[in-house]
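Database export, one record per block. Field names are fixed; values are copied verbatim from the stored entry.
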Amino acid sequence: MPILKYKHLIFDLDGTLWDPRSTIIGIWNDVLHEHQLIERELKPEDMNPYMGLLAKDIIKDIVSGISDQKVQEVLSNIIAKEKKSCVPVAVSCTGC
């Protein structure tokens, strides 16, 4: 595999260039429904207060009284689905 040389790499870790909420909310809804933990679907804006927090803490807040073991199970399912749907992408731009 050839080694590509780039002058610059852009990392968007805070959602400035790409808002991950609309992408991941479907996965969270699917998993939380599969585990029968929510009655209504979450909307992207429902995640606003949680931006920057750990996923396990978000789950604990969304599902009150959930056990640590169930949190780990749900989180494992979410991570597995996110890995399948989110493909890492690097975009080359000549002259940037």
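Remark 1: The chain has a mean pLDDT of 84.
Remark 2: The first helix runs from residue 21 to 34.
End of record.
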